[in-house]
């Protein structure tokens, strides 16, 4: 008899038929003896339809009104899912974010949750009802409707699970769990039974877009066991938990990669204090996000500076760099937008040496040139030419034996 | 500098273009120096789309969830209209029924308004904002979303006007006012500059479906001046007010008619106390609404009883009447579903004799047989064969000179 929060995204509730399939799945959990709170997104396509109308009216829609508008998407889904449950004889009640007082700050379109009033929900659960809550939305202290931004329904689910001290927060998606790497690149990629929050954060930020980073952070902070499952097929999914003592962690959990990177290098910059700020300041002001940053000693008291940005921002960043290079008297600016970043991720890395050198050896054996390297406690990332992406990921997946649960270090 | 409540129905806000036209009209009122509160319905078609999805899921959708579902319709409109006003540089704020605490009872799908909190609205108006409120919806004391039933947006507008003590409540529709009769039947039909609440109630209940009866009753009760205007063309519309002393009321304001009537007659019923109840009891229990009721003395201590119902209920009512006739030992049951009801309406009727006889004379001259007659203080209704509808209405419109503002009694 567990308390479960289940979250279904837009694709999972994208039609009347799918909503009925979700109702069936929810009822199965209730029949297993669990108390269930369901968090749902808007039906797929609905949010874009609403935003489309808004933009026809106002090029940059007033954020307060945009929130009021798009919040209707989830409100439709909660009502329909509650009806689907009632139609199956399962008592259920729907609640908007405002109705269960998912209190947020007033930052419209990307509000942050501050608290949730769980009294009403607990009352319904005690009465044997399924509680269906609108994800993605909340209300500020003035009663204004707010939304949490893209992927906010995951955050709503985790926040509800934390507030209710739920036994598990299940995120239903169109994939059946977290994989060692993208199965489209490596057919032998294996679904992980469990992964730590830290690993999941690295995997998510590196392009394994199963969950929103914010919801994983949130789950980690409040120690909410998070499970990723498929809403279209049965299976245990992947459990995301705190690192547990006593459990032998695999050295490498997975290989993430990010295709949309571009690299910029400015060479022969006079090496003086504040040089990094002078180079990256204009990039930040232009709202361009910087991913990796490397600085090397160059020739003659100068320094070489390299960083990566999203490929879409490459041209803009290159223009800015040329201006900066003129101002600083740098020798040369170069760039490359045909690169990818590949990362090995694993908490076990902390206690094992030799991972990096093994990675570099595998790539060398495949004659793949490494352009940049960056490391963190549980991650090693390399930047290589994008034409080698598949080759590199497959070679690493094989070398680290990720297709089998046991990992060797030979 | 007046305080105006404007209400726009689903057709008036049925597309992005129409919402922009409404914004233009609202802004014109603001530019005239008026403070404006706008009440809107869901975009036309939206409520039916939502109900369609609900019925796919649940044959009889749970009322609580149905209200949560359809309330999204107006929420979309308030947000889009507020954006359209903002886009024109006019500050505006949207509010759902819950946000301005349009407090109702808990009778989902046909809730009744109990109170409205006007503090927020007044604050916005004082700050120079247009306030856009979702019609049709409210919230009960437990925070559950309720709706007021069909045409409820008119009621919302009138209730807001009453609560705010507005100078006028303007109902924008697809007609430019209240006419002496249906212009499709009588091309010479004339728009009335003003009409009393009582006349309007009789006109509305008799098939001139310009306004919901409830909103007219409400406006009359709270003495809210109500004006019906077109949202597609400019014009003064029709003002609906209390009868004013000193103003010479026209004898007849208009001619209403009702096409979907059917008549049932049970003859030779033993005349005993409670006979009307014995006849109409089963009709009421079957949820059939009865309109006109007539009882005549028949032959030999028996009585003849005639009543009208909606044409859709005719077969069911006839079956019930045959059973009743058997039980009561009545002589004969007959019915006719090819009839119409035509009514002359006018508060001036009270102080003028001869209206009825003039009406009967006009119909006789056209050789139209009258099957039933009923009268009230400000109305005379006759039931005739439906084939004579157009002929009768035109003859009466001419005879009472409704195409000219002055009415003669000659």
From TrEMBL, chains A, B:
Please list the GO terms describing molecular function: aspartate kinase activity; ATP binding
Q: Name one GO biological process term.
A: threonine biosynthetic process
Domain named ACT is located at 264-338, 344-410
* Entry EC no(s): 2.7.2.4
Top-level EC class as recorded in UniProt: transferase
Quote the CDD domains the UniProt record gives. Answer: AAK_AKii-LysC-BS, ACT_AK-LysC-DapG-like_2, ACT_AKii-LysC-BS-like_1
What GO CC annotations are associated with the protein?
Answer: cytosol
The protein's annotated pathway = Amino-acid biosynthesis; L-methionine biosynthesis via de novo pathway; L-homoserine from L-aspartate: step 1/3; Amino-acid biosynthesis; L-threonine biosynthesis; L-threonine from L-aspartate: step 1/5; Amino-acid biosynthesis; L-lysine biosynthesis via DAP pathway; (S)-tetrahydrodipicolinate from L-aspartate: step 1/4
- What UniProt keywords are attached to this protein's entry? Amino-acid biosynthesis, ATP-binding, Kinase, Lysine biosynthesis, Nucleotide-binding, Transferase
Q: Which residues bind substrate?
A: 47, 74
Q: Which reaction does it catalyse?
A: L-aspartate + ATP = 4-phospho-L-aspartate + ADP
Q: What would be one Pfam family of this protein?
A: ACT_9
Q: Which residues bind ATP?
A: 7-10, 173-174, 179, 184, 209-210
Q: Which family does it belong to?
A: Belongs to the aspartokinase family.
Q: What protein name applies here? A: Aspartokinase
